[in-house]
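User: Teach me something about this protein's shape.
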Amino acid sequence: MSVDEDTANHGRLLGTVRGPQDVKRMTTEQLGILAAEIRDFLIAKVSRTGGHVGPNLGVVELTLAMHRVFDSPRDRLLFDTGHQAYVHKILTGRQDGFDRLRQRGGLSGYPSQAESEHDLVENSHASTALSYADGLAKAYALRGEARSVVAVVGDGALTGGMCWEALNNIATSGNPLVIVVNDNGRSYAPTIGGLADHLSSLRLNPGYEKILDTVKDALGNTPFVGKPMYEVLHAVKKGIKDAVAPQAMFEDLGIKYVGPVDGHDLEAVESALRAAKNFGAPVIVHAVTRKGYGYRPAEEDEADRLHGPGGAFDVETGKLVAAPSVKWTHVFADELIAIADARPDVVAITAAMAEPTGIAKLARKYPERVYDVGIAEQHAVTSAAGLALGGLHPVVGVYATFLNRAFDQVLLDVAMHKLPVTFVLDRAGITGPDGPSHYGIWDMAAFGVVPGLRIAAPRDAATLREELREAVAVDDGPTIVRFPTGTVAADLPAVRRVGPVDVLAESARTDVLLVAVGSFGHLGMEVAARVAEQGYGVTVVDPRWVRPVPAELVRLAAGHRLVVSVEDGVRVGGVGDALAQAMRDADVRVPMRDLGVPAEWHPHGTRAQILADLGLTAQDVARDVTGWISGLDAEPVEPIGLRAGGSAAQN
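Assistant: First, the predicted structure itself:
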């Protein structure tokens, strides 16, 4: 039977699952069939929409066991990170929504409070679930509520410092809490660091299969009656662990430990979870799984086990259906290698995302000059500061949304010491299907307040290469180079350059100065053409370096009747705000309007859909600009401090 045929009615058993209670009634044989049907369902659905397929194939049995042992939503189930919650969504009545997974009006790619009472937090940034769980367990204890709290934490997430801060407090409080370590040896790519080496010693030990059988037999033949039973189980485990991994890492924290358990043996996982639930104190259940389990293309994908195909893919091969195109990330990766060839002092750091950020390409050529620190953005930034203090120029490759986690380190560890560190922010602006926690809309506003930090926003491949080289040439402070996701638009040459500012188009009339930030360069050109049809002249400029505001940009503003900025970052504190302040400081009294993203939580959808909602399309911006400039013909010039909005993007 083909995947499509088998999933036409969600599979014979899967079609009967409308909530966790349906799974609790199934026999062992039925559960095995259900697990296979869930994998077929996931592959069929995600192959059409894109999404996180590899992580979810690896947690099928684990999630089934959790919903058989615990009673969601009264018991709270947290996933760190939330991209491994697809099976949880399937088992909690959301199968029908997978036809529109990560699409406008469809299911989110992460847990979502708006979707289901079974989802508590979106949790799409790693290493946070244990802190949520610690607080929940404390709250339920204080309120006298007998509710279980379960946190599923990937071994990759355990490379993040927040996990260890939380574990320290969890051990101290002693409240009932189950921590499931989903150990597949990977976050996006193979997990890096001492913890990963320690866990891999369990997975790779020649006696591991025998150990799993021993654990399974012990779990399967033991009644679960709380602490007395747990001590028996603990004794079995202790002997195993002493043989395989002499360092009692988890127990040294003061938290009980069960494992390693075969994460694809549903009975073993379920038995371990029941023991942990009944113990009445914090317990770690160490489940060893395989990312992409059961799907050959995923298991054979050494890069990331089909972690998150960005679009539809062929079920037979796992390859993307869309024709390859030149991505922003590819341009950056190639240029970084060219820079590194010429400059031996240039090194790179990534936080468990070497492939997605393009750093992996440099690592393949210069492995000794690339450092993957795991999911630890704060450490990545301050480690980069140390590299800079040691005479190197580090390039830190990270998604724009994730650098938010290290603001303090950028501010005080790097910028305050005027260290030459370049941060390259991939997926800047509205990114689309991954939703609000992944939108890179905060960086220009948040980091714009950092003294001495320069921010570049290239508009195309040529300016990305140019501005990256300019960034690594800076030796007296940090720099940021930001760019969006997806395919790079055609190069847009400037007609001339004024200081660092590129003039993209100009007219005999100087009615409007349109400041098009970064990838909005092409939008600016289309807006200028539309406004020109109404008889007004528009000068389109790309600042290139948006923070601090170039003095030349302020002088250009002084020569026009109206200034309009458009950016794909938040308006509050954004580039437009900074330009308005610079104009006030220079006593330039030209009216100013700034268009950008409202500081709100915007739903998932395509980038084009969301920008249309925000009024950030050429048609919308041209209509606004025409209205504002025509209004100046009939009204006195408005002081710059009074910038009432006229666009949907401003309200």
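Now, about its shape. The longest strand covers residues 562-570. The CA atoms of residues 140 and 182 lie 25 Å apart. If you'd like, I can walk through any region in more detail.
User: That's plenty for now, thanks!
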